[in-house]
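One thing: mind reviewing this one?
=====
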Amino acid sequence: MSLINTEVKPFKATAYLNGEFIDVTEADLKGQWSIFFFYPADFTFVCPTELGDLADNYEAFKKLGVEIYSVSTDTHFTHKAWHDSSETIGKLQYPMLADPTLQISRNFEVLIEEAGLAERGTFVIDPDGKVQIVEINAGNIGRNAEELLRKVKAAQYVRENPNEVCPAKWKEGEETLAPSLDLVGKI
């Protein structure tokens, strides 16, 4: 079953953020755009490159009113240790959610049960707490924050303009489409 347009299931997690442990629940997502960015594990290889890429683009996401939540099945203590020991992870300014109970990974259907790890899953959640974008990558394929930023802009655009759709490769400011009988077979 697709998670598109489903509401985020209830959860409570501890996250590491800016030298502190904080609690995060599904209620924190309401009223803003959010990204849940699942990755397999701290202290690995592809994961820090992805989290660093998000950190490098974090201000652009914040300007769009988007909060990023990285999520792995590691503990919040492990997140702190990784943050304190890695130059790349040390620049993160978004919450690193801990999912040692595996509940959040199960809720988003990215849990690799036999390994107790999460797939590389990306979920864009609208201000109503509903999933609008789902992307799952194989463990050895890293993601691109700039492409994710483009997709967020498209999701925000169609939310504000419900009678329009964004075609392939759409970028902010480019022409959109207004679905109608006149367009059938013309594209």
Remarks:
- Residues 145-160 form the longest helix (16 residues).
